[in-house]
Amino acid sequence: MLEVAIIGASGYTGGELLRFLDVHSEVEVVAATSRQYADTPIRKVHPHLHDLDLKFSNKSPSDLDVDLAFTATPHGASMNIVPELVEKGVKVVDLSGDYRFDDIDIYEKWYGLKHTNPLEAVYGLPEMYRDKIKGADLVANPGCYVTGAILAGIPLVKEGLVDTIIADSKSGVSGAGINPTPATHYPNIGDNVVPYAVTNHRHMPEIQEKLAKYGDVRVSFTPHLVPVIRGIITTLHCFPLKDVTPNDVLEMYKEQYKDEPFVRVLDVGEIPRTSSVRGSNFCHIGCFEMDENGRLVVISAIDNLVKGASGVAIHNMNLMCGFPETMTLDGVGLHP
Ligand SMILES: NC(=O)c1ccc[n+]([C@@H]2O[C@H](COP(=O)([O-])OP(=O)(O)OC[C@H]3O[C@@H](n4cnc5c(N)ncnc54)[C@H](OP(=O)(O)O)[C@@H]3O)[C@@H](O)[C@H]2O)c1
Questions:
Q1: Beta strand pairing call for 164-171 and 232-238
Q2: Rounded CA gap, 151 and 282, in Å?
Q3: Cα distances (Å, whole numbers) of residue 203 to 151, 218, 260
Q4: Which end of the chain is more exposed for a tag (fewer CB within 10 A), N or C?
Q5: Which of 6, 7, 13, 116 to mutate to test the pocket of ligand 1 (most atoms within 8 A of CB)?
Q6: Mean pLDDT by 10 residues, the chain (336 residues)
Q7: Gap from CA of 25 to ligand 1 centroid (Å)
Q8: What is the pLDDT of residues 67-79, one digit of tens each?
Q9: Strands 122-123 and 218-225
Q10: CB 232 within 8 A of CB 226
Q11: CATH 3.40.50.720 in the chain, residue ranges
Q12: Ligand 1: which residues within 6 Å by Cβ?
């Protein structure tokens, strides 16, 4: 049995890690940390996990004797937790932004923080780096918006079809974590759609850095908060540089993702929706329509808490530990 700790287990992604790992036959969660809920049963914070016989603890990294740890902690906090775990020989999957960037200057500029403990990490998107993840000790999970945008964008950039992509995303409110803020307070976001960080969201440079691995591209990104709990829809707009039909584009996507267990390519004109992937680790990619001005539209849907966070974290753990990669993750979405 693989002994696992979840650091930051009282948050939303921590709750999702607990939900999936509870039914993973190769894993035992031996520690779930929370500073504010130490000694409290898990179900007091995550009531849906009623039968989970575990309490939160406030163990520090030095007290954790485990094979693998998930750090489901905010950026800025992870960098003070991860190095000690790695030093002790614990494999780590970090869900924050602290270890995602190749270029530390980009991290410091966009996160407004000095990175005190940089380490080499593998970027944890299995569709990009499956083989590297298998041999990694530290995996940096992608940002939630980033996953939706780059899975939708990879074939376009790889085939040299575009040099500019405009990504427009709509996210459910759980993307902001468990603590309410004025932006996420119900009367402020209910019955409302709110664009934010319109030209300067910190996921933009991450989308740019990762898509640029496939070719020259310029990315612009605008997120919106919408009054749903889970899910991200990302609409990519671009003008192909080559003469292509929607069916040509569809074939590129089918080829790119033909062996991927968690990416589903829909037919031309079929539109991804959040309810098709809610609660699941799947990414749906579809639309592939072109308008009279030559604009191509590609749309992706993910659950931000699963494919965008905890599901991909477990996918990464499965790869790092030699388990079947879909283990505990193969359930479909909750529609309607
Ligand atoms: N929500 C999403 O959709 C999503 C998607 C992708 C990535 N992420 C990333 O995943 C991470 C967790 O997100 P989340 O939504 O689960 O956040 P969250 O709901 O706010 O939970 C954060 C957790 O971290 C703990 N924590 C906070 N500061 C800490 C510190 N200094 N040391 C130790 N523990 C600390 C908190 O517990 P206590 O205060 O009780 O200790 C809490 O359990 C973040 O980096 C986030 O950016 C989130």
A1: antiparallel
A2: 11
A3: 14, 14, 24
A4: C
A5: 13
A6: 98 98 97 98 97 96 96 98 97 98 96 95 98 98 98 98 98 97 96 98 98 98 98 98 97 98 98 98 98 98 98 98 98 94
A7: 26
A8: 999 999 999 999 9
A9: unpaired
A10: no
A11: 2-120
A12: 8-14, 34-37, 72-75, 77, 95-96, 143-144, 174-175, 177-179, 304-305, 308-309
Structural domain 144-304, CATH architecture: 2-Layer Sandwich (3.30)
User: Which amino acid, one-letter code, is at 40?
Assistant: T
What are the residue ranges of CATH 3.30.360.10 in the chain?
144-304
| CATH superfamily membership of 2-120 | NAD(P)-binding Rossmann-like Domain (3.40.50.720)
Report d(CA 245, CA 289) in Å as an integer. 9
3-class SS at 213?
A: helix
**What's the token pair of residue 317?**
């753990």
In which element (H, E) is residue 130 found? helix 126-134
